Amino acid sequence: MMEEKKINVGGQAVIEGVLIRGPKAYAIAVRKGKNIVTKHGIASKEKNKALKLPLVRGAVNLGEMLVIGIKALMWSAEQASPEEEKPGKNELALTLLLSLGLVVIFFIALPYFLTNLIGLTEEHKPVLFNIVDGIIRIAIFLVYLFIISFMSDVKKLFEYHGAEHKAIHCYEKGRKLDVENVKKFTTLHPRCGTSFLLIVFIVSILVFSLLPSFIIWQLPNFAFYNFWTRKMLLFAARILLLPVVAGISYEILKYSDKKQGNIMFRIISMPGLALQKITTKEPSYRQIEVAIASLKKLIEVEGKKTIKN
Q1: Which long-range contacts (CB under 8 A, 24 or more apart) does 206-212 make?
Q2: For the ranges 5-14, 121-130, 148-157, 291-300, which has the lowest average pLDDT?
Q3: Would you list the domain boundaries of the chain?
Q4: Cβ-contact 184, 238 below 8 angstroms
């Protein structure tokens, strides 16, 4: 029988495995040959009450999940690679840094540049500018997902993503965590990171339209504060406002997940669920075993009074 008192869980796919996070801890399970290896750690230390406030907690949780996700990816890469091919820490750090740089270039800089290129200006039409910028950003994201979905390694990652969702569904429904039960559930989940990213893109249109455009363009001209200075400030504002966008998006995602019985919130969830048909695939028996191992390890660790790495 499953425990009556359930914890809130979420996760992500990693290389040949699954990461599951709970309120206090996280667990990673990775397929290593015929065996499954696991690791756990502290997900979050006791926070100041201010960091738990709505809008603030979303940015805090996103930051924590990014740190944990990077650690999990690095560890899973070490476990999944043959001994002679294991990447070094410097190599992994460089890859992650390059990946973050490409995210900024393709999903922030490129849409902004293309929107300026077609003749729209934030000074005169900030809302239209940011709507077009947002549409271009979403289009780039969809094309990117579609292209990488044909790569064999990414397909496998998406299968583990599907296994993670199925295992979480099974746990949330109170069913016994075994392969036969888990495989019956859908690979789609309203609280998925894919849905979160889509909400981020949509919310960013509103935030970027209302905050920086109307403030920066209203400031009077003075030495060194000209058209190009304003452009540079607006671009910098997009990066600085990401925690605000993340905070709002987190609240929308969290609330829509709780209100799936409400037709309005089901409609809000639909685009994200549709997108998950690309980012999740039906997992194999062995992949489901890994997701179950990760979730069971988390439940075990969360039940302890003291959690150690």
Answers
A1: 206/130, 207/241, 207/244, 207/245, 207/248, 208/130, 208/133, 208/134, 208/237, 208/238, 208/241, 209/126, 209/127, 209/129, 209/130, 209/131, 211/237, 211/241, 211/244, 212/237, 212/238, 212/241
A2: 121-130
A3: 10-302
A4: no
> What's the number of CA atoms in the CB half-sphere (13 Å) around residue 267?
3
Contacts of 32 (CB under 8 A, 6+ apart): 16, 79, 80
Q: How far apart are CA 136 and CA 140, in angstroms?
A: 6
pLDDT of residue 232: 78
Q: Report which of 30, 59, 35, 39 is spatially closest to residue 47, judged by C-alpha positions.
A: 59
* Tens-digit pLDDT profile for residues 257-281: 777 777 877 888 888 899 999 999 9
DSSP string covering 151-203: SHHHHHHHHHHHHHHHHHHHHHTT---SHHHHTTS-S--TT-HHHHHHHHHHH
Q: What does the pLDDT read at residue 87?
A: 61
Return the closest-CA partner of residue 20 out of 181, 191, 260: 191
- The model's pTM is 0.85
Taking CA 71 as the corner, what is the angle to CA 70 and CA 75, rounded to the nearest 5 degrees? 115
Q: Distance between CA 56 and CA 60 in Å, rounded? A: 6
pLDDT category at 1 given cuts 50, 70, 90 is: very low
What does the pLDDT look like over 60-116, one tens digit per residue? 888 888 889 888 988 998 887 766 556 666 776 777 788 878 888 888 889 988 998
One-letter amino acid identity for 169? Answer: H
Direct distance between the N- and C-terminal alpha carbons of the chain, in angstroms, rounded to an integer: 28
d(C-alpha 100, C-alpha 79), whole Å? 23
Token output for 16: 């040949």
Residues pairing with 14 in the sheet: 17
CA atoms within a 13 Å half-sphere pointing along the CA-CB vector of 49: 0
